[in-house]
Amino acid sequence: MAELTQHPKAMARSAVDLIKTPWALIVAILAAAAILDPGSWVEVVVFAGKALMHTGQYILFAVLLLSYLKATGAEVMVARAFEGRETRMIFLAALFGGLAPFCSCEVIPFIAGLLALGAPLSAVMAFWLSSPLIDPPTLLITAGALGWPFAIGKAVAAVALGLFGGFAVRLLMRQGAFAQPLREYKPAGCCGCGPKQDDKPVWKFWQEPERRVRFRAEFVQNGLFLLKWLALAYVLEALLVRYVPADLIASVVGGEGVLPIVIAAIVGMPAYLNSYVAPPLLAGLMDQGMSAGAAMSFMIAGAVSSIPAMAAVWSLVKPRVFAAYLGLGVGGAIVAGILFQMI
């Protein structure tokens, strides 16, 4: 009798858990879009699908690499590589972040993998902040639309923001902040069953059944985690692009002085701002009276994050890390805008 009474409750709990998943939210959002605006439903789905397929290659690479390192036990080597070299890693992460062609969403799989492997949050934050800001193609497009001074200024701001964020997080970590930064993104193996510090990696992991099982478990769990949250992120991005034009958002931040720079960063952070589309858009707005400092602030804040990226990051890290990520992004954008305006 007890089983009969508990069974409906268990089913109800399972139904509630299913409704709370990102998959259910994606279905609900797309269903609402189909009902309220059936003419744009296909456009929204195609946009989100193409964006997810584009990022899928990065997700696949990151998850395969993470699963391989976990199966071989190489995360011990990764952890050792960061011991005593945190300062060097912050500098390298900020510098090489400028060469990585990742937007604020595409960089998330790599951030997840680095944190899961035990990389220090300070170095990860340096790469996290600098990578979405600039890369060689973006540099050329920005220079063509806004001139080389603006493009070089953005490149310098990208590295400077990465360094600032990395050393700021390092300072806070020394005060005891940001212990265990990940929220849900966990290794598939149970606590305590991973490799020990004196273990040696087994590069040909497929020769051992237990390691093959761990590789599959890591691949499925971590892959599904990133896939579901980035799928939701790109559905939100598709809605933003379709219903909230970037030029409408940017037009709010016209004028001179510090206040427009601050507003530009606050407005630019949640907005979707493609690094390839933004330079021509901002060039037109600057011709209409938008200050160079506000344009720089808006571009940096918009590249660092957006509502879709925030949704994915929120599911990945704990609230304090999330707040630091946003605070450093907005603060860095404001400082960069003010300095660029003064220069």
UniProtKB/TrEMBL annotation:
Q: Which residue ranges run through the membrane?
A: 21-39, 51-69, 90-119, 139-164, 219-236, 248-273, 294-316, 322-340
Q: How does it sit in the membrane?
A: Multi-pass membrane protein
Q: What are the record keywords, sorted?
A: Cell membrane, Membrane, Transmembrane, Transmembrane helix
The main location is: membrane
Cellular location of this protein?
Cell membrane
Concerning InterPro entries, the annotation shows: DUF318, UPF0718
Record-stated family: Belongs to the UPF0718 family.
What is the protein's given name? Permease
Q: Which organism is it from?
A: Ruegeria haliotis
